[in-house]
């Protein structure tokens, strides 16, 4: 008696994708989720500067939201230095990392309540 040899589950497994296909699908998904940069007017810029100066002067924690390549990113920490010449903010994050933020990326600044 001869027995038919079947591939079992193998024939029902999903199709194999090449790495190029996977990369292209991730890029398409990423492009779909991107957001246009919000317009920040002069009064908002003044407000951001005031909050940054207060946070620096009083060593108060702050939340800075930036727009970077279509996505929002949030930083929480304390302002170490405001560099007016280079238009950068030097922020010490909660985990101790020093981060440099370009002022033209900033779309939101909030002072955190002290506990």
Automatic annotation (TrEMBL):
The protein's name: YolD-like family protein
UniProt cross-references to InterPro entries, sorted A to Z: YolD
A Pfam family hit: YolD
Domain of life of the native organism: Bacteria
């Amino acid at each position: 008696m001869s027995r038919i040899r079947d591939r079992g589950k193998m024939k029902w497994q999903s199709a194999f994708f090449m790495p190029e296909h996977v990369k292209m699908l991730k890029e398409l998904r990423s492009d779909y989720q991107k957001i246009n940069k919000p317009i920040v007017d002069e009064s908002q810029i003044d407000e951001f500067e005031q909050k940054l100066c207060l946070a620096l002067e009083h060593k108060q924690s702050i939340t800075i939201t930036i727009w970077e390549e279509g996505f929002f990113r949030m930083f929480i920490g304390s302002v170490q230095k405001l560099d007016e010449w280079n238009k950068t903010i030097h922020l010490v994050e909660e985990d101790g990392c020093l981060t440099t933020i370009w002022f033209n990326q900033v779309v939101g600044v909030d002072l955190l309540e002290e506990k």
